[in-house]
Amino acid sequence: MNAPANGPASYFPAIEKKYGRPVQEWIDLVRSAPLTRHGELVAWLKAEYGLGHGHATALVAHTRSHSR
Asked: In the 8-state DSSP scheme, what is residue 15?
């Protein structure tokens, strides 16, 4: 039995449903962005892709905590 996702990953199903892209695409976008600071990345996702603050924050937090 799979345990429910915790932390930022708990937002992933809602992100995929609302914005129609797999989470991995969002993670790849964050990794390829020319920005490096958390707040800048969140603002960029919100401005360029229309993500809500919580969804953008979850994607950035997860991506930065699992950086290559």
From this structure: H
Place of tokens 């997860």: 62
Cβ–Cβ < 8 Å for 8, 52: no
- At 11, list the tokens: 């937002």
Q: What DSSP string runs through 26-63?
A: HHHHHHHSS--SHHHHHHHHHHHH---HHHHHHHHHHH
Contact 4, 36 (CB under 8 A): no
pLDDT, tens digit, 9 for 90 and up, residues 31-66: 999 999 999 999 999 999 999 999 999 999 999 998
CA distances from 34 to 3, 8, 39 (A): 35, 22, 13
